[in-house]
């Protein structure tokens, strides 16, 4: 049994301002919206109803999830579909007191089905603008390459997105990690760097600590997505801490995809105690059982040794690790201080 969270701490976790830096927008597609879009677009689904689809969300590893995730994304066809999905995420994020989000999107999942790059980016961008205006939640887009595909395909994807260069802040690397080391994407990340794009990559989720090091050394990334397996290499942990390389950790994802047997085995508290700039994020919240606050709550409930100080550190890290400018980071830090002074 997981002990209940102390009420004052639970309130603080829920109400403190935070940034979310690791969320795949296609992973926010809830089953109800999947069925609505499937009906609207005439896309056949392998499941008769929402309950049957949800029942399929029992994963054994990353690949077993990705198969279901790509099937879910197949209902997205029009810019309005991408807009609806992204607006739903921003509303949910606002409810969790997310003030800023940096959103991954997987264009190759859509262009491979004949959906134009412009359709994907237009829908997401419209939601980004509307959310800033109506919800006060700011966001940025990060274009991810699918690492199970070739580097030539990644390069072609980057080139195809360049007409919308001003609409994405950076590039990332996701999908099946094992057997697809960062080195495979050296040239496309070099090209992204030359274009002035920020760079991040998934590494050390299922893959070895060496992938974390090569993402830094070969791809030149500024943040590591997941990165939890870095804990297996003490020198690497020291390097991450000394260089303040952020890890965007996703606790519920790691348990759902069996990186850890249960939350009590999670290494986030140890990474945080070692001085690593760890952040808490939801990854694919529609599939993994909760949005960002559910991740904070599950983590703190599993570790009674974590309290106010750790909550503050994690939220402060989320702002420090973001791609926002220093003035905005300072303003958010002020809001965080106010939340802690009040609560
Ligand atoms: N890992 C790798 N690729 C992904 C994930 C993830 O957790 N979610 C969506 N694409
Ligand atoms: Zn991810």
Describe this structure in words.
The chain is an alpha/beta fold. Helix content is 50%, strand content 13%. The protein contains 17 helices and 8 strands. It has helices spanning 7-15, 31-41, 50-55, 62-73, 79-95, 107-111, 117-134, 151-161, 186-194, 209-217, 234-242, 251-256, 268-273, 285-288, 292-302, 308-320, 326-342; strands at 18-24, 98-105, 138-146, 170-174, 198-203, 223-226, 247-249, 278-280. It has an 8-stranded parallel sheet. The longest helix has 18 residues, at 117-134. The radius of gyration is 19 Å and the shape is globular. The mean pLDDT is 97. Bound molecules: hypoxanthine and zinc ion. Hypoxanthine binds at residues 24, 27, 62, 69, 174-175, 202, 205, 253, 283-284.
What does this entry show, briefly?
With 343 residues, this protein is α/β, with parallel strands linked by helices. The protein contains 17 helices and eight strands.
What is the SS-derived class? Answer: alpha/beta
Shape: globular
Distance between the termini: 27 Å
**Ligand roster:** hypoxanthine, zinc ion
What kind of sheet is the major sheet? 8 strands, parallel
* Oligomeric category: single chain
Work out the radius of gyration. 19 Å
Give the H and E element order: HEHHHHEHHEHEHEHEHEHHEHHHH
Strands, total number: 8
Fraction of residues in β-strands: 5-15%
Low-confidence stretches: none
In round numbers, the mean pLDDT is: 97
As laid out across the biggest beta sheet, the strand order is 1-2-3-4-5-6-7-8
Enumerate how many helices there are, as a single number.
17
Q: Which range best describes the helical content: under 10%, 10-25%, 25-40%, 40-55%, 55-70% or over 70%?
A: 40-55%
């Amino acid at each position: 049994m997981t002990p209940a969270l102390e009420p004052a701490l639970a309130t603080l976790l829920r109400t403190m301002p935070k940034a979310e830096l690791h969320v795949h927008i296609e992973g926010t597609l809830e089953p109800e919206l999947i069925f609505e879009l499937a009906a609207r677009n005439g896309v056949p689904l392998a499941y008769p109803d929402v309950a049957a689809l949800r029942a399929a969300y029992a994963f054994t590893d990353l690949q077993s999830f990705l198969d279901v995730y790509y099937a879910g994304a197949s209902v997205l066809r029009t810019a309005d579909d991408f807009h609806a999905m992204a607006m739903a995420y921003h509303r949910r994020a606002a409810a969790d007191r997310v003030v800023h989000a940096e959103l991954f999107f997987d264009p190759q999942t859509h262009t491979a089905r004949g959906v134009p790059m412009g359709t994907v980016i237009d829908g997401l961008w419209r939601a980004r603008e509307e959310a800033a205006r109506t919800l006060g939640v700011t966001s940025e887009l990060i274009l991810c390459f699918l690492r199970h595909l070739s580097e030539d395909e990644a390069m072609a994807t980057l080139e195809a997105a360049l007409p919308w260069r001003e609409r994405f802040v950076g590039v990332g690397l996701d999908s099946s990690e094992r057997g697809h080391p960062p080195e495979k994407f050296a040239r496309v990340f070099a090209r992204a760097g030359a274009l002035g794009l920020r760079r991040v990559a998934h590494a050390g989720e299922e893959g070895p600590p060496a992938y974390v090091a090569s993402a830094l050394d070969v791809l030149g990334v500024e943040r590591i997505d997941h990165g939890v397996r870095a804990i297996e290499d003490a020198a690497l942990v020291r390097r991450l801490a000394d260089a303040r390389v952020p890890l965007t950790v996703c606790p519920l994802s790691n348990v759902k995809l069996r990186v850890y047997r249960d939350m009590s085995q999670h290494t986030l508290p140890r990474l945080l105690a070692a001085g690593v700039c760890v952040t808490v994020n939801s990854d694919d919240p529609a599939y993994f059982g909760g949005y960002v606050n559910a991740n904070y709550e599950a983590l703190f409930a599993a570790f009674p040794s974590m309290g106010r100080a750790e909550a503050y550190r994690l939220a402060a890290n989320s702002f420090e690790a973001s791609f926002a400018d220093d003035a905005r980071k300072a303003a958010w830090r002020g809001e965080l201080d106010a939340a802690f002074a009040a609560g």
